Automatic annotation (TrEMBL):
Origin superkingdom: Eukaryota
Compositional bias per record (Low complexity), positions renumbered to this chain: 32-51
Biased composition regions of type Polar residues, renumbered to the chain: 77-97, 272-285
Protein name, entry field: Uncharacterized protein
Region of interest: Disordered: 1-59, 73-98, 262-335
Organism classification: Eukaryota, Metazoa, Ecdysozoa, Arthropoda, Hexapoda
Amino acid sequence: MTKRGKRKLENFKQKIKHKMRKLENMMNTFPSSDSDSSSSSSSSESDTSGSRAPVGPPETTQTVVQAMVHRADDQPQDNQNDYLETLLGTNPSNENTEGPEIAADLALHWESYLSTGLDRDSRKKLMDQWKIPSNCKYLKAPALNQEVQALLSSVDLKKDNFQQNIQDIVGKGITAESFALTKLLSQRETIDATITQALVDSGKLLTDIFHTISTHRKYQLLKYFNESVQKIATKQNVDTLLFGSDFGDKCKMAKSVEAAAHDLQKSGPSKEPQSATRSLNYQRQNFKKRAKTEEKRGGERFPRRTRPYKKSSRDNRKTAGSRSLYTYGHKTRRH
């Protein structure tokens, strides 16, 4: 708690204690029931001034004071908790996520089936006992379309059959529940509405599980389709067949439309074949000549001499000057 909160708490305690002292003084001023009404004013003043004992027992007054002080200690913390709860909402950990208890024997059997499952004979007996209603064919697991079944590998066929068996079990469970619900609806005037509503809610959840398995089966098989067929498959509703009864017709229609669109598509400009003969205005492409590195001499190949390093004009002047001096001196010596 902050210093400001402690200060407020201490002030609140002091106010309570001050009020309790006033209350005690007021209780002490009342005359006792045992006092004589005929006593003189002097004697009553002396009694009240001398004794001034409270009417009630002192233990009761002290208990009340302690209770109010304890209440004062708790009140600021409660106000703080209420303020935080207003800002943050209710504490999620305090929410009760468990519902009311069911019958003990029923809970025991449900937990056993959820843990170990039904044995094969019991499952087969229940599956044979409950038949799919004639007016609700969709409770039977949807079969694969023939066009799709021809595309699947053996591994994917086994996976799909396993999920199809799960759907059949869920469908038989919905059938049994629907039978009980039909009986209750025929006597709905005498049956509690909460019982009927509970069965309806259970049926909604089971049918949603059935549809979720169908959707999972569909999306597992989309990898076998091309892009155009995938668009059709994702929009198809499930009926007695997984991709719908009109899936094959829609695929054929899409294929014919695609072929017609391909025929109507504008072709690109035709390219004329190049003639073997060249016109008179044909210009030969300029190719960069490669530098010759060899030359022939008497039928043999020798590396070609490269040009000597070109001297600068300054070097040429020096060479010419030295040559003229040498010539002049040579002529002088001859003469």
